[in-house]
Amino acid sequence: MKVLVINCGSSSLKYQLMNPETREVYAKGLCERIGIEGSKMEYEVPARDYEIKVEKPMPTHKEALELVINAITDKENGVIASVEEVEAIGHRVVHGGETFAKSVLITDEVMKAIEANNELAPLHNPANLMGVRTCMSLMPGKPNVAVFDTAFHQTMPAEAFMYALPYEDYTELKVRKYGFHGTSHLYVSETMREIMGNPEHSKIIVCHLGNGASVSAVMDGKSVDTSMGLTPLQGLMMGTRCGDIDPAAVLFIKNKRGLTDREMDNRLNKESGILGVFGKSSDCRDMENAVDEGDARAKLAEDMFIYRIKSYIGAYAAVMGGVDAICFAGGIGENASGIRERVIESLGFIGAKIDKEVNSVRKKGNVKLSTDDSRVLVYKIPTNEELVIARDTYRIVTEK
């Protein structure tokens, strides 16, 4: 089966055409700056080592998707003869609220339910829905499936997802922890369980570390806690997001600086984190290079980032009553060997030991980082969210 995976942002559209059964990726790419001057499309055919970039106006997502369809069906460089070969479309949808605990076939009722959660993800859900509507318009009759970032974490118990606020804030406003990066946490934890031989019982901590970062506790294949909350702002310190903070500090800063709600939100989401402390960049690589050059604020930002990761790992080991494996994924998790080493070296009290030599060598694929005498397995596992979306899409459209 050929499944087209779509991930729509407000001004971008990521795509992959793939076979979820064989994992083969026929084509993939990105349309960016949609509705903005200088819009362009990247198109890649991995099997042929073919890649192009096309600069062309894309006023809306409709024009962007038309470019994608033209590229994958192009007589010379396409990968399918016509769009009829696309059997289903899988969409990443950021927030499913409490409504969706699993992926679903998109119907009019599902669209309305996703729209009802727009307030919980105002920057993401409307863009995701825009992608769905565009696909339905350009490829009528094709089944569309919604795969939610929040769904994997819907197995959290109430004591983990509830906030200690007046109860009506939950019942009336649905204010609670939802968690994000669910497709990544699902893929990485499932892969780790396979490596472990698919035991009946397992305690796995997944560290998805990128510009956005989150940690999850996965017990017996189910999420029992995760660091992100009502929004992706809670939890770890991130590239530009502050992560955990005293709520009173938000009101204090807002009032002292005379900021509007939007300005304060921007400060927390786009001016904080690594960027806020380091001051020069939100990129972990820039921070690490500056640390090597003796930059004190870069060192402080790195120490804070690592401290938060260690704190969550320790907390989740306590929540699960131990830990069998710790996994690193995401751009930082997969590439920042120094950060991995510092995190694991601090976890000797739970029996985790890292092989420094193996950890220092960049290798593709799943890599065991722990020593043979480590009581906790430590792995680098590159995430594959598109495969999760494609697999769920395949499963739903082929269900009898």
From TrEMBL:
It is found in: Cytoplasm. GO terms for molecular function: kinase activity. Coiled coil: none annotated. Its cofactor is Mg(2+); Mn(2+). It catalyses: acetate + ATP = acetyl phosphate + ADP. Its main location: cytoplasm. Keywords: ATP-binding, Cytoplasm, Kinase, Magnesium, Metal-binding, Nucleotide-binding, Transferase. Catalyzes the formation of acetyl phosphate from acetate and ATP. Can also catalyze the reverse reaction. This is Acetate kinase. It comes from Fusobacterium mortiferum.
